[in-house]
């Protein structure tokens, strides 16, 4: 029998996930929370969500707090999502670039890695003689671990151009049949960090020509959106691009970047 949750208990979890990750969990997400967290009561022999909340709020179980964050963050992504952004990266950024220095891109809400490796394929194809690097980050340790493997089900290949599939993806055989692996020469140019975007970035990740911050701000209120952008912009080089999701906007959020196309902004 599944544990139920009272309105008061749900409100406590809403405040907790907002405090930790800046995520505004609407009242409609109550069923989702119960579905994802119910199984976490059993290891501690808790009878209700109130007991589980009190343990988390006490701050003595940081690993369980991270587990809660992992379970409540949504990680919907796929290869070459919103392809016009990658066309812009190729045509307007990479092909017009003159510098021989390492070209660096940050996938700031990288989820299970499809965006990271999409970027890696585009960079490998269009910067054959220039060093490049892709950094991925997420608040969820679970999806970062998945991303670092570069290992996916073949069903996830939709959107990957056939030429890229042949050149940069290795199809599994025998016990790995039905899966594919991102080629080692791409994986070695990627790195992964757990970063909470609502807090100042203290990881030693350097600066970037382009930052992808796509399809994550839809979970934030305006105050949190402003905080996230404020935390990211010091990592974006002057003249660099900040790219957000097609259902998102920076209007009213910041005046420190200039829109060059819908969802694509440039730092002066």
Describe this structure as you would to a colleague.
The protein is an alpha/beta fold and 268 residues long. It is 37% helix and 18% strand. The strands form two sheets. It has a seven-stranded mixed beta sheet with strand order 6-2-1-7-8-10-9, with helices on one face. Strand 1, helix 6 (114-126) and strand 2 (132-138) form a beta-alpha-beta unit. It is globular. The model has no long low-confidence stretch (mean pLDDT 94).
Q: Which key features would you list for this structure?
A:
Chemotaxis Receptor Methyltransferase Cher, domain 1, seven-stranded mixed beta sheet, Rossmann fold, 10 strands, three-stranded antiparallel beta sheet, 2 domains, globular, alpha/beta
């Amino acid at each position: 029998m599944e544990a139920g949750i009272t309105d008061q208990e749900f409100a406590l979890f809403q405040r907790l996930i907002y405090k930790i990750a800046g995520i505004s969990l609407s009242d409609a997400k109550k069923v989702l929370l119960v579905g994802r967290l119910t199984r976490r009561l059993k290891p501690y022999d808790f009878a209700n969500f109130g007991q589980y909340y009190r343990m988390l709020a006490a701050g003595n179980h940081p690993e369980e707090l991270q587990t809660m964050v992992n379970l409540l963050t949504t990680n919907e992504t796929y290869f070459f999502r919103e392809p016009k952004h990658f066309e812009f990266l190729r045509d307007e950024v990479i092909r017009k670039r003159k510098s021989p220095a390492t070209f660096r891109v940050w996938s700031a809400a990288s989820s299970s890695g499809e965006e990271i490796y999409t970027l890696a394929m585009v960079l490998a194809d269009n910067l054959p003689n220039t060093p490049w690097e892709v950094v991925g980050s997420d608040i969820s340790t679970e999806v970062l671990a998945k991303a670092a493997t570069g290992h996916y089900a073949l069903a996830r290949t939709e959107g990957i151009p056939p030429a890229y599939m042949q050149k940069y993806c290795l199809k599994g055989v025998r016990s790995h049949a039905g899966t594919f692996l991102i080629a080692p020469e791409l994986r070695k140019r990627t790195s992964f960090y757990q970063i909470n975007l609502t807090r100042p970035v203290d990881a030693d990740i350097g600066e970037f020509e382009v930052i992808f911050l796509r399809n994550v701000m839809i979970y934030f209120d305006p105050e949190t959106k402003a905080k996230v952008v404020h935390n990211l912009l010091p990592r974006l080089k002057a003249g660099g691009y900040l790219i957000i999701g097609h259902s998102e906007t920076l209007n009213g959020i910041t005046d420190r970047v200039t829109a060059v196309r819908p969802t694509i902004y440039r730092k002066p």
